[in-house]
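[Meeting: bench + compute handoff]

Bench side (C.D.) handed over the final construct sequence. Compute side (W.E.) agreed to return the predicted structure before the next meeting so the bench team could plan truncations. Sequence as handed over:
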Amino acid sequence: MPKVLFLTTSHSYNDDRIFYHQAKALRDNGYEVKICSLYADYKEVIDGIEIESYAILEESIEKKMETFRKVCDNFQPQTIICSEPLAVVASKKFVKEHNVSCIYDVTEWYPSMRMLSGYSSYLLKFVHAIKFLMIQLYAGYISTHFIFGEKTKKFPLASFFPFKKRIVLPYFPDNSYIYPHIKNLNPEKITICYTGQLSKEKGIENFFRAADTVRMKKPGLDIEILLVGAARTKKDEIYFSELLKKYAWKNIKIVNTVLFEDFTQSYADADLCFDLRDLNFENDHCLPIKIFYYAASGKPVIYTNLKAIRKFMDVSPFGFLVNPTDAETIADIILNYIHNPEIYKLHAHNARKEYEEKYTWDSIKGSFTDFVKQAMERPKR
């Protein structure tokens, strides 16, 4: 039985892309699959997939790399799929000695703004941005194949290594994890939903500001706020607490982070789903994953007008792209749904239809498993 090993530093062993989609697809195709993560301590076999995870994110780079090397030596995979540059570099010796393929699955902008946020001066940010970029290019050099989560993340690796085989594998949902719930809009009440990290960078304040504007424009409307997620840092906790004090509304329901299997059910009562993250260079080139889940659930959406979205899909059949700080326009869109429930109904049904016709995991799963198979069968040196 051929073996495939996933290596990831910052993703959990049960990450939705790695575990629920890629690993299960390979398992179903007869591969022996193992996931090694450095996010949390866990060793078990789940649904036929072996997990060997360690909580060593705060340890030294050398310890992380040595952990990955030992897992490679013990498991003896024919293909390694890496989610970060460090995992690629750690697998270098094994890949070379055993002449196996190393697939770099590029899903994050690298270096990200988050990685540079800890440096105080612009000079330090610039120096470390160049450093991280060099690491990214080195990982690209070591890798034998590329998977890109979206077209906007192909640069710079696809440009520097144009002859390496690659595919674009979007974040489409597996329908077995979708709970579709198309609602009829109540003209007296609306539930608007935000999911994910409760932080300024992800747009939670833009969301509250838009809701507040709707309240001022239509005081009699019953607005329920549904938040699914949590603040990840102490800074975010303080920031979110201040927002709750400022917008001290009664109908705010907060659901802490839920299991992936329960995610779409957690916002089933929502009428509209939002993502109003700030418009900056990094966000502009990152395709928000949850837009596919909202569509699959039959939820109209209001999203920041990101280049990555515009280049990949047409949102107009089931929602709107907006300036995230333009609370007036966003409020008018929400109220237009209230005043024209037939438009809401059309968008809700269109959302599910667009998902079924264009954005299912089943439609791209075969290209992924074929790509891994071809990588495993590449000519030996």
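W.E. noted at the follow-up: The first strand starts at residue 3 and ends at 8. C.D. will use this when planning the next construct.
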